[in-house]
Specification:
Two copies of one chain form a homodimer. In chain A, the strands form four sheets. In chain A, strands 1-9-16-13-10-11 form a six-stranded mixed β-sheet, sandwiched between helices. Chain A has a six-stranded mixed β-sheet with strand order 3-2-8-6-4-5, sandwiched between helices. In chain A, strands 7-12 form a two-stranded parallel sheet. The first copy, chain A, has two domains: about 170 residues, Stage V sporulation protein AD (Peroxisomal Thiolase, Chain A, domain 1, 3-Layer(aba) Sandwich), CATH 3.40.47.40; about 150 residues, 3-Layer(aba) Sandwich (Peroxisomal Thiolase, Chain A, domain 1). Chain A is built from ten helices and 16 strands. At the A-B interface, α3, β5, α4 and α10 of A face α3, β5, α4 and α10 of B.
């Protein structure tokens, strides 16, 4: 039961785009995003519509940057945090692409890239979009409390990122002068459940899933941590990141020198009141489509492991006294041939 | 932007299993299900746990019927109707397979088979499971009213099926004496939204999605309706099925002689008080894993188009005054070489 697939035909990430909310735009990565805003409603009628609008914008921007004609897009693999993928249903319906809806909580960018890259590598389509989003207000409303309550959250809680990221995954090099970015392989995660029940400490719930998929990626491919310039988790935050590194060290794997968490990078944790860091599908998505792919393109990194992490939290299961299962998927990204 | 993929390496449906609730077991298809019950709680503590237990049972049964060792299962593609795929997170976590969570509402069996068959056809794995479920009580609680309210529903409303179906999709013929069942191709659906806002008439919301994907399947592959022994929608029910046939006739395509809807087949609509018919991910899944695959195996049908239909309904979007977008995916199943 091997979790890793190394591609013979390596798909490329041809283009990418990110749309970020106000707080994210004001954070340390603000300059990297394609679209930033002062209006987290994105001129919409409600928060959910705002999230859908970010998606539409991110997808359109990614397509226009790719140079691929809309008619040559074979489909879109996408999802979000909301029940029944509400943001996505409305965010992409007007685009009229063949659509596969995926859910992996905050690991969704990993899952959508995994599925889209398999489709492209297999030759079923030449261009497939992977996309996801999250919005602070839609997520708080769904998983915690409506914003109007002014509810306080503990320091272990993370802050759901308002943002959407989209990538165009293609089979062909466009012969540009820019460094191509290849998806060398993927490692599909398994559900890990260590019994954590605290929805305000999802970093702890997700760390075992990140541990499990990183270990599988290294072992199955006979890699060592130093094969990567950086190993990047999605949204473990300060608390979960420490647990992950402790777990890996316990297994003799030291990634401390090359570890980064999108949730820690996205806000200034000293001044932005983001608690343990950013989270949500959008967190790893816009960090990928802002910071990470840019560094690979500019040659600052050669090879990274991108590991979006997801807490499969449902308010129903939580209120029924259940644990928070988690999953993470790993994507091997390599700049240059 | 072609929606259809015809497989060069055609994956097989090696085995399948269905678990059905009490009402479904008492219906016309009762004799076809692998596991039937008098207890819709499946000895669980709550409805959600019952749904998860059906999933575990369906997957285990499908694996044991396949003759494939658990270690040779490459992964599972699965989902359900509940927010954040709660039934699936708990239903499969113990099985420890690489997992891709998918959501297409009641079209999920189509989507999970589409993704799993692409993975197997491409040679990324030799055996992948596609699975889904629904449960009347978990769905009513989430989308309509808790059962205890005794709420009345109009005749256009469908009844969510309690059941789970799982298939093992494999790359190799097992050289048995039985007729092999091949997945010849798939047609991935686009979101269709004709503005229907009545959550008690999801057949009407979904009919355009079924129409769109059936038309794409026929046109793109230069097929005619009579190439199929049967064209089978998931859960349009009596109301939606009539709309679909009208729409197709309007486009010059007559499938009336070879049309079936899983939601209409699964209950005795005269005596079982199921209104417009069955619905839910489980509806098409257990009809596939009970009636349809059996008929193909026995040679009663040679080739069918299986079209699970999904209403991308969210209670949040509905309460915000939104429409019900819908999607359907089509799977070409062929018995014999």
């Amino acid at each position: 039961m091997k979790q890793s697939i190394m591609f013979k035909n390596k798909p490329l990430i041809k283009s990418w785009a990110s749309v970020a909310g106000k707080k994210e735009s004001e954070g340390p990565l603000g300059a990297y995003f394609d679209v930033t805003t002062d209006d987290d409603m994105f001129s919409g009628k409600n928060w959910e519509q705002a999230e859908s609008r970010m998606q539409t914008e991110a997808v359109k921007k990614a397509i226009s940057k790719s140079g691929v004609g809309t008619n040559d897009i074979g489909g879109i693999v996408a999802g979000d945090l909301l029940g029944q993928l509400m943001a996505t249903s409305f965010g992409i319906s007007q685009l009229q692409f063949p659509f596969l809806g995926v859910f992996g909580a905050c690991s969704t960018m990993g899952e959508s890239i995994a599925v889209a890259s398999m489709i492209v590598s297999a030759g079923f389509s030449d261009n497939v979009i992977a996309m996801t989003s999250s919005h602070f207000a839609t997520a708080e409303k769904q998983f915690r409390f409506p914003l109007g309550y002014g509810n306080q959250r503990p320091l272990s809680a993370t802050t759901t990122v308002t943002g959407s990221g989209a990538v165009v995954i293609s089979s062909k090099d466009d012969n540009s002068n820019e460094t191509p970015i290849f998806i060398e392989g993927i490692t599909i995660g398994k559900i890990e459940d260590y019994g954590v029940k605290d929805s305000n400490n999802m970093g702890a719930a997700m760390a075992p899933a990140a541990y499990s998929v990183i270990m599988a990626n290294l072992k199955e491919n006979e890699f060592v941590a130093s094969d990567y310039d950086c190993i990047i988790t999605g949204d473990l935050g300060v608390v979960g990141g420490k647990i992950l590194n402790d777990m890996l060290l316990h297994s003799g794997v030291d990634i401390t020198e090359r570890y980064m968490d999108c949730g820690v990078e996205i806000y200034n944790l000293n001044s932005q009141d983001a608690h343990s860091g950013g989270s949500g599908c959008g967190c790893s998505a816009i960090t990928l489509c802002g910071l990470i792919l840019g560094r690979l393109r500019r040659g600052e990194w050669k090879k990274v492991l991108f590991v979006p992490t997801g807490a499969l939290l449902s308010t129903v299961s939580l209120h029924e006294g259940n644990t928070i299962p988690a999953i993470a998927h790993a994507i091997i990204l390599k700049g240059g041939k």
